[in-house]
Protein 1
Amino acid sequence: VSYEIEFTDRIRVELVASLASDDSVVAAARVSTKGIGSLDELSQGRAEGTGLINYLMKHRHGTPFEHNYFTFFVHAPIFVFREWHRHRVGWSFNEESGRYKQLEPLFYIPGPSRNLVQHGKPGDYSFEPGTEEQFERMVQRKAASCAVAYSAYLDDLEDGIAREVARMHLPVNIYSSMYATCNARSIMSFLSLRQQHPEDEALFPSSPMAEINYAADVIEEAFAAEMPITYDAYVRHQRVSP
Ligand SMILES: Cc1cc2nc3c(=O)[nH]c(=O)nc-3n(C[C@H](O)[C@H](O)[C@H](O)COP(=O)(O)OP(=O)(O)OC[C@H]3O[C@@H](n4cnc5c(N)ncnc54)[C@H](O)[C@@H]3O)c2cc1C
């Protein structure tokens, strides 16, 4: 069987659908005091200038931020999915199957701008660039081991072995695809853990892996565009998820 093995450092995260507005946050909060009258809050522009969203964020009243959804298409290596799927609350996932389809020979290898060397101890690492030589050797080793693994995968398939067994050769830098849907509260929880910000910007600074941090940056952009007042309040209150 002829095939071309591919290596990339591209991670794709794309907003493919959403139903989200700052007004829905205000309406959901106001129903407690206005009942049916809260429907008026859903008309465009009512969230502006109320200060209510800031109040909710500051006091961590989180449920009004749940009446919306964002759907992302994600194409990324499996080790990114493993971290992503740890976020249990408010996320729905559907992922490509290694049992039902043959996996493409596409593998992630970090690009030259990704930090390669870690210093410190668990929970307190810093990452720095490696030397050019370290980078070249790392790329060569990964390319070689992925080629061996994928070739063994195909040999198994040709030998009549089931896809779910053949895939056991494959490393976690092979690509997968998924749809991931969540609400703004889950987004804030995700961003608070999967983005790195200094102490003056984040009350609880995190030190996420570069690849999921990249994905979180794209999600942040979509969130800021769809719910700008909520996003501003999240940033102002030092990126604490309500
Ligand atoms: C820098 C970093 C390093 C990490 N290192 C490791 C590691 O070494 N090993 C490892 O296993 N994981 C690790 N993780 C993953 C981490 O433990 C969480 O699984 C992940 O960040 C998801 O967070 P979460 O549970 O808050 O999210 P979600 O599952 O989406 O939960 C959101 C919130 O809901 C509430 N909640 C959810 N489930 C429960 C529950 N069962 N009981 C009570 N409240 C609940 C909590 O308030 C929680 O914060 C790491 C994460 C980060 C960001």
Note: Residues 86-89, 189, 193, 206-208 surround flavin-adenine dinucleotide (CB under 6 Å).
Protein 2
Amino acid sequence: MRTDPLLKRAAAVTPGGVNTSIRRLPDPLVFTGARGQTIIDADGKEYIDFHLAFGCQVLGHCDEYVDRRVLEAMRSIDLIGAGATELEVQAAEKLLEHVAYADQVLFCLTGSEATHTALRFARSATGRRKIVKFQGCYHGWHDAVLANVITPPEMVGRVSAMSSGMVPDSLSHTLVCEFNDVMGLERAFQEHGDDIAAVILEPIPHNVGCLLPTTSFLNAARLLCDRHGSVLIFDEVVTGFRHSLNGFGKIAGVEPDLTAFGKALGNGYPVAAVCGRASVMAESATAGGPAFFAGTYNGHPIGMAAMIATIERLESGEVYEHIFALGERMRAGLKWAAEDIPLPTFSTGFGSLFVLYFLQGPVSDYRDLLANDAARFVRFQQGMTQDGFFMLPINLKRSQVSAAHTQADVDRAVEAAARVLRSVSDQVATEVVG
Ligand SMILES: Cc1ncc(COP(=O)(O)O)c(C=O)c1O
């Protein structure tokens, strides 16, 4: 048992023992290894990983091809911190080759930096203050958007800050609309259209599982931004490179002005990007524009090499074929596994990503998700994790597969899900009787 002493040491030196708020687990774990589709905890227990660091490892953990390219880069160069490196040029060309609606790209390290930059460029380009975000979408930890992701029912419909320590004014220019609500967005533009710098959205709000966008909603967002001279930002930190090599805009047939990428872009290595139309990217101080953009580690060779290698691995399309087929198999399997239990459930997702809600589907916006039975959702994901199938035991959190997962992994997970669901359902029966 190495977990207990490590947990004690972690809690002594790090507040709560973890380095990100939502890495706190109901049953705390310490991990010591990862490879392919597997992660290992400090007691040597192996898990099939369906969390994948919030979806980062689209190829699986420690992908050999990506790691080799990272090591090669490390042998020849490290951070220079002036001018450009050949790897940055190659990485930018590679990304722009695939994301056709982006003319230029800037690299940073995290999704939060990418969305922060996109909003700054939008405000700089328009000279306006307000931004529109949607209930259920997460865009990182910076103050202007840290609101209304998983929101208690009594706060839905109001701007609801997610942290203390934020200046109250930091959200005074943030408007929150309901996802998929065309009329709500139209109202926001009627009231504030002259002052809306940007509309930012996750094309699929995966931070609350999976709310699929309607075509009319995405079209309306594009149209209203065009009509009012606002910047449309797609936050593709989760969807980008996991669902498509070409950006979700290509799938949706709606092209954003700016896009933020992260997570799967580097298969888990720290790299993120903000890219888009040359006219808005020209705001960047790197091009002599008025909007400051900087970061000591931006364009770090490790991230650049990881990104180029990850995209190369995705280019043949075989990875997408494999992970989409597994995602579909898992969604169907979970639906089947839940059929015999007397609880409402709804299996949904997109591509390689899946979620089993404890509610009567379908779902279209966050208000629908308020019906999700949070306690049972968490109990289910906790039960799966205890059985060796790691799914983040936090309400509304999605799961996903990687190129390293196999059909057998999915089938074994579905069998486990049937067992775990029966036990969740039996607990419900006991509660009712008790
Ligand atoms: C859609 C979305 N945008 C932005 C972010 C922030 O990215 P990071 O945690 O890398 O700062 C996240 C992180 O989960 C995300 O899911």
Note: The chain is about 40% helix and 15% strand.
